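Bench log. Compound arrived from synthesis this morning; before running ITC I wanted a structural hypothesis for how iron/sulfur cluster sits in the protein. Inputs:
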Amino acid sequence: MSGNPPTTVTLFIPCLMDGLFPSAAGDLVYLLRRLGFRVEYPPDQTCCGQPAFNQGYFEPARKLARRYIDIFAGAECIVCPSGSCTAMVKKHYPALFAQEPETFSRAKALGEKIFEASQFLTAFVAPERIKARFTGRATYHDSCHSSRGLGIFDEPRRLLAEVRGLELVEMEDSRACCGFGGLFSKRFPEVSQAIGLEKIKQIQATGAEWVIGNDPGCLMNIQGHLNRLGLPIRVKHLVEVLGGRSDGRGKREEGREKEKT
Amino acid sequence: MKSKTEQFKKEARRALTSGNMQLAISRASKRFSQLRRQAFAHLPEGEDLRTRAQAIKAEAVERQEEYLEQFAAAAEKLGARVHRSPDGADACRYIEDLARTSGVRMVVKGKSMTTEEIGLNGALEQAGFQVWETDLGEFIIQLAGEPPSHIIAPALHKTQQEIADLFVEKLGVPLYEDPQKLTMVAREFLREKYFQAGLGISGANFALAETGTIVILENEGNARFSTTFPRIHVAVVGLEKVIPGLSELRVFLKLLARSATGQKMSTYVSLISGPGRKNEVDGPEELHIILLDNGRARFRQDAELRTSLYCLRCGACLNVCPVYQRIGGHAYGWVYSGPIGSAMTPQFLGTLRAKDLPLASTLCGACAEVCPVRIPLPDLLLTLRRRIVEAKGHSGWERSLIKGWAACQSSPGCYRIALELARLGKDFVPGLLPPGIELPDKNFHRLWQDEYQD
Ligand code: SF4
């Protein structure tokens, strides 16, 4: 653990997470509250601009980045359940404003207080305090922007090691790209698919029933391939596993009402 | 070399369905990257060396002109003739003229991407000279009439069986299955060429300013043969190959072979300082060094992409690239493939002409992680993508879509409506989401409002 834990955590729930994995985001809220953090969620947040930025549309990305900086500037600490969106804010926001000293320093300051969820949890919480349960055999996919972009590798594994009932089996190259790449998968669908299939082969070889990851984009892509192939393997977001409210088959252990603090 | 970068998508699709070739590429590139990983695992100072190497290249590119002058002066003092070529056509012409005036009929070549870049073989053949590639991989693709598909392993896309068949067809030998036997066939065939050739052509991995030395790394000994046997040796050297001297070379020698093939050191490291001297048995009578610009001086002025000139052409970024692993080098449509090809080709041929290349990347960053000179390849691709946008390289439709999307994302109300619409419309817009992906009824915005808000 490093430094003093913040009292209030401001959530940044990226657009794909918002639309595709809302209950996982809810699990994160639940978990953070259970661990004693005050959780805030600025309702005006939208997308961080990454899809535009990655395709070279820097102006639209800047526009969204400015907006984002305004919304989150006052936060004590930002937690985000996506490696790539965290990397966008942390690494690319400052780069986008290299020519604008004032916005640059605001972007930098923001970058210092944003954490991807597993980074945050390992930095400020003792993993054994999380006390999650999840039954099944799973493998972990390291998303590119999380592992190479933010240097995250041990963090999710340290957290998962404490999850009761979970058996983690590493695949051959957990850091290999899943082929998503945002609009890349639309521009070059065949290439994207070929890369994805390599990933699926590795996942299959582990005999896992679950693929855990921390990036909604990769999870969506991987699940899509699994569906296409008719494989019974399912994806799970890391925070969903750690949230500990589901038994891996989606059954809630506690009613929604009780989760409200 | 002629380019067909415009056909990237088509060629990529073709590669993906090529079966054998696809398998050969993915096997070989994976093998190379494994070997690299193992080699670096045994080199604790590896990361520091990469940082050192990057710094050396940065300084060498910064002071390139100075070092080039120093190099040329030193090399000339040793008896070499140094010629500066502004472009490939000039370099080809120089070599043609030289060959003609020297009465040369046959030319042997060591492996060189720079000569591929300027299409030297074609130019010489058209001028009536017989040209033989002597590197085994290059020899194979020369026989097959194909361009290289990898920076260091040009015939990487070919299976053993294909090579065996090719030798039967082109060299008239029996069908040999054994790779060693095939190598012997090539060797025997090429051996006599070294004796007949009046001119040997090579590239160079480094040019040492201090001593006027060119350095060539290889594994087969063919480059050494090609540069010592024939009466004349011509080295075609890109401007960016110049480094200060021997002590800098040591850093690269530790990194280059490890990055390329996982070897501690290339089997042959030749340091060539001037032509053969009077009392020496080996070495050519004449050494010509062509310092090739072909756009490099311009790339150097480009502050955002300049780091691409640090490239050692080790091929490590190709081997780890998920896109390269699947489609191989030919789809990139020009000499340089993989991540570095995607960063360089648009500089050589024009951003819009090669615009698919920088776009054909997931920005996974595997390349930057292995590059021995720490070229920030994904950043270069992003810069090129920005330039494509600035040059209005995308369809009007796409541009409006992105613009509209950004406008919508700037308004919380619009954003929320868009999320709802995605849920409702996903069944009507095929391909909006991968198959079987469901959008839950309540997005998190609503979930928060209904269930989590304090
Ligand atoms: S860019 Fe780096 S990794 Fe790629 S070929 Fe050049 S030196 Fe090697």
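What the model suggests: Residues B 151, 259, 311-317, 340, 370-373, 375 surround iron/sulfur cluster (CB under 6 Å). The longest strand of chain A covers residues 133-140.
ITC booked for Thursday regardless.
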